[in-house]
Specification:
It is built from eleven helices and eight strands. By secondary structure, it is α/β, with parallel strands linked by helices. Bound molecules: 1,3-dihydroxyacetonephosphate. 1,3-dihydroxyacetonephosphate (13P) binds next to strand 8.
Length: 274
């Protein structure tokens, strides 16, 4: 893992993966924007512009999702009710209702027509001390309300340097997916913490190797139903790298932070799928 390979070797490895049958899944690719703590009422123009762009251009086999802050879910959902764009949340409570000041439940997200919920983003793990156990309970809550969940996993730079990447990812997956999780309502986002907002991106070889590892983990848990789980890549995705990353085996789309905030950047990304 993390071999130093030349570009030619990298292409050869990717071909070998294809020959040995690690073929692309048949699901639609998911291009998802995670707006984090950005966005105000004035950004209604973004969603209007994106809807217009999508209705004027035929996107091939792509699903588009925007996850704004909670405060914009209602407005964005009503503005996209007749467009193929889905709206989702960036988190939800692990409880269904009650005395939990400041929390937002999965049923509230559903009430505002949110269709997805990102869970376990590294910023929540780091700044809010979220554990795999809590994340597991959040996924169960979200799925209870029929929200499709995107579980985020990823190693820190220190994990990577100490060759702990696969162990960390394996543990995050196993411990976050306990109980009655529905794989048909689940996607995974592989987001190396060191690649988020830094402009650094793993090599295509590394991304493909890790996505294959994640897919095999999911297959052990869910058997053939693992094929319904899309594995997205996230971390410094932009219009220059989206095409090559999304064409890798077991990469079924991207979770995009910074570049999803600007309409121009989003259009440039989506143009690659026309
Ligand atoms: P950037 O695309 O800004 O690196 O953020 C990635 C991310 O955290 C998406 O959830």
């Amino acid at each position: 893992m993390y071999l130093l390979v030349t570009k030619t070797q990298e292409i050869a490895y990717i071909k070998i993966f294809k020959i040995i049958g690690l073929n692309k899944m048949t699901n639609k690719l998911l291009i998802a924007g995670n707006w984090k703590m950005n966005g105000n009422k004035k950004d209604i123009s973004f969603i209007k512009g994106l809807s217009k762009f999508i209705s004027n251009n035929k996107l091939k086999n792509i699903e588009v999702l925007i996850c704004p802050p909670f405060t914009l879910i209602d407005k964005f959902s009503s503005l996209t009710s007749r467009s193929p764009i889905n709206i989702g949340a960036q988190d939800c409570s692990s409880n269904d209702s009650g005395a939990y000041t400041g929390e937002i439940s999965a049923s509230m997200i559903k009430d505002f027509n949110g269709k997805y919920c990102i869970i376990g983003h590294s910023e929540r793990r780091i700044y809010h001390n979220e554990t795999n156990n809590l994340i597991n309970n959040k996924i169960l809550q979200a799925q209870e309300e029929n929200l499709r969940t995107i579980l985020c996993v990823g190693e820190t730079l220190s994990d990577r340097k100490n060759k702990r990447t696969l162990r960390v990812l394996g543990n995050q997956i196993k411990s976050s997916l306990k109980g009655k999780i529905n794989p048909n309502q689940l996607d995974i986002a592989y987001e190396p913490v060191w690649a988020i907002g830094t402009g650094l991106v793993p090599s295509n070889y590394d991304i493909e190797e890790i996505h294959n590892f994640i897919f095999n983990k999911l297959k052990k848990i869910y058997g053939n139903r693992a094929k319904n789980i899309r594995i997205l890549y996230g971390g410094s995705v932009n219009s220059n790298n989206i095409s090559s990353i999304s064409s890798l085996n077991n990469v079924s789309g991207a979770l995009i932070g910074g570049a999803s905030l600007k309409i121009g950047d989003m259009k440039s990304i989506l143009k690659q799928f026309i």
